[in-house]
Amino acid sequence: MMASGTPREALDLALDFLPPSERFLHLQKQTEGNEYSAVAEPVHDDDAEVSHFLVEHAFAALTRVCRFVVAPWYGPKRVELSREPPADPHSHEEAFGCPVQFGCAANRLVFELIEHPIATADALVARLCRHQLEQRTGAGAPSELEAVIVRALRANLRSPPSMAEIAASINVSERTLRRRLLGAELSYAGLLDQERMHRALAMLGSSDTPMARVAEESGFSDTRSLRRAIKRWTGQTPSQLRRHDE
User: In this structure, are 208 and 237 located in the same domain?
Assistant: First the structure.
């Protein structure tokens, strides 16, 4: 979210990829005029108190994240809750920092869309993050095996450990490691390429670091190899990517 360019982009990312567990709560987004709403609907309503808690907890978390990412003063315009008013309704207004309406037709956290650039915006990193999230949607968290290999690669991407070295670190043979990767529809080469892509594109998007340094930090032998890889990953040259983000 911190790489998003505007509040709307940050909210889109949160609601598209970071909802609470769908076993308990459905979150969707609605836009009307200059208002952007997060609409929450409990999956099970047999326990009203639990449903109220889940909705308000989700709305409070989204409010905190928006204030952290966009600016401390940015928060919801109003909150609409389907529940009846509590004994002390003012505590809700203090928590959200805006008017809170009770007995509404739906649970909505309403933001006013503003053209306020986010200080940490980085279009290239934002595109990369969304692309990776889209690829992982529905795939669940990385397996333990994948996590072990990725950690080993990230720790020394300049001179990445070999398959044999990684296998030895987890007390299995290289042949066993290859078989497990195959069973998980993964490959050492694919994971290494993925981590090099993450490192290289992040460096290109966040600084004017010379290409030679980007190549070195990403584990490429020279800038020519890096340029070919970037073209393969994105369809663009490094200079085109950097111009796009200016």
Answer: yes
pTM across the whole model: 0.56
Domain containing residue 131? 123-244
CA 241 to chain centre: 21
Angle between helices 223-234 and 211-218 (to 10 degrees): 80
Note whether 74 and 134 are same-domain residues.
no
Angle between helices 144-155 and 188-206 (to 10 degrees): 50
| Count of domains forming the chain | 2
Q: What element of type H or E holds 38? A: strand 35-42
Q: Could you read off the pLDDT of 197-233 as tens digits, one per residue?
A: 888 888 887 667 889 999 999 999 999 999 999 888 8
| Residue 133, domain member (yes or no) | yes
Residue type, 54: L
In our burial notation (b when 16+ CB lie closer than 10 A, e otherwise), range 182-202 reads: eeeebebeebbebbbbbbbbb
Q: CA dist 191 to 52, 99, 139, 147, 234, Å?
A: 42, 48, 16, 10, 17
